Batch of 3 targets.
Target 1
Amino acid sequence: MPALDAPRKRAIHEWSADERPREKFMTDGGDSLQAAELLAILVGSGNAREDAVTLMQRILADCKGSLRRLGRMSIPELCAYNGIGPAKAVTILAACELGVRHAAEEVDTERLDTSEKIYRFFYPKLRHLAVEEAHVLLLNRNLRFVRSVMIGRGGIDSASVDVRVVLREALVSNAVHVAFCHNHPSGSCRPSPQDDRLTADLKRACEAVRLIFIDHIVLADGCYYSYADEGRL
């Protein structure tokens, strides 16, 4: 990082009580704090020229304000900032990972009745994989979670899927609705001709045993494609 010419800022312990992030959290709750203030509570201190809040504001600005981008940074990338060492870097990334897992838990308890909810369910599992993985999501009559099963893992641009395995997992779980999801490590969520053929095979096989095939989601980092939303089921 380039050297900073700004004069030394006050340390957080020199701030008034109603300015300090930790005290604000205790009196007003977490909703009252900006992301940089919450992260400042975790890292505790900044550097000789920046308090913890200012440092985290700068790091977030470099991430275009995105916590998702922050969570994808590596430990060495974070340690390049003056005032961030390995322990603080791990703390930041651990907090981002907890946020992703918390979001996934919320999805687990609700009806998975839209493509966006199915995408949010699978995103934490598939977002950073370097190879394709295929998962089946099994739901009950009310479109609530029963099981999720990985049924295929492959290379950079393909994952082998046996439709019979999908049916077996659905039937032994007494599922009523079936959704399918796989990732594209390339970053593009546009489906391939192979994806089109697999979708048709899955829909036909589910109909044969009176299962309801509700969607096939192709997931990439930050985007997804839904066959149901596109009217292709």
Target 2
Amino acid sequence: PGIHDAVFRTSQNLRVLSAYINKQVDEYFNNYVETEDNSIKIGNSLYEKVESPFLDEVLKLTLEKFLQSDVSAKDVAKLKGLYYLQVGKDVKFKENHSALRERNFILLKRTKKTNFTEAKIKVGHSIKIADHKISIWKVKNSRFLVQEPGCEFISMNEEKPTFTIRNWKDGDKFIPLGMKNFKKVSDFLTDRKIPSSQRKKQLVLTYRNQIIWLVGLRIDERYKMTTSTKQAIKLCLS
């Protein structure tokens, strides 16, 4: 009977301990983790304020919700180690599921595969890339320009120019509107505090190998509208 009582008490204690751990894990998850439709954000504070084994359990719960399947200790270790890597680093899990180190959080996101590298686009046409559409139009009267959200105007002397739209790459540079000197696209994005998840998808519009528009952000100083502009081109992102 003594042994049975001891086993019973131990079993009860384990159940109480398990319930306590689960309650704490749920509390930490609700305080430090944000869930959205296709992504999950883990705040830096989770790593800074919560110690193991609770941290490991919260990360395990987060991955289970993200991957919608059982996770291994290796998966938890990968997510735990990502916090100590530099901003922009990522780790992969199952297909189309990855975690990205941002400045103030870790982003777990499901991504769609895309084979886009670059495309040609002429004036009067539009092109759809992922969730965005880029349109280029000739302005009939450059003296009456109406500013619209997501649109820019550039000066272009060639009658029928052909542009190239592509993802930015290391070494790309341009002269941002209002500046006198070249600036690397990577530095411009850093100065604007563009999250790493968005940086990877940043597009540039080029003409004769010159960047004329960091799409959605800034045109090049060399293509700004002036009093000597012969032809105005309207660039729009929607």
Target 3
Amino acid sequence: MPGYLVPASAAEVELRFKNSRFIGTAASASDVDEAKAYINSIRTRFPDASHHCYSFAAGFGATVVHGMSDDGEPSGTAGRPMLAVVQGAGLGDVAVVVTRYFGGTKLGTGGLVKAYTETAQAVLAAIERVEKIETIGVLVELAYQSYEVCKRHIEALGAQIEAEDFGAHVELILRLDEERFTELRTTLQDATSGRALVERID
């Protein structure tokens, strides 16, 4: 799987709609537990707020898990429009919370959708992004005489050596960009006349 964009850091914005304060916060969340922990941290930070509506995308593409909540607002006026913003932002591993302090004037269904949508858009526009590359673990077994030449190939392909074991043969545990696995396997097998064992381990 190719890389995808994720938040590089947290972001926060504040908008006002008819005297109600809407505080948009967003941060990285690589799985559902991280997303829920972030949402709970915002609840703790603003304990007296009227609502803490949220949406998140843990992962990206075919493996993404989405979540959302209206947190007491009329159904469909907060979580769903916020999720639409998240899905359209081209970001993965992100959680967005919009915290509302009621200002005394009801916004109506259309007004709520507008407020939550625009606050989510504003905080995602403010967030810094970085590319996340999916990596995998790789087991390599080879003879001692092949170690030096294979190590050079491994480093040239950008793999990180996480562990080395020198027993009856050399055993390496690598961390590698997923899309380069086939190239690594072919390169090491060519360098050892097919004797190197190269396997994915996660």
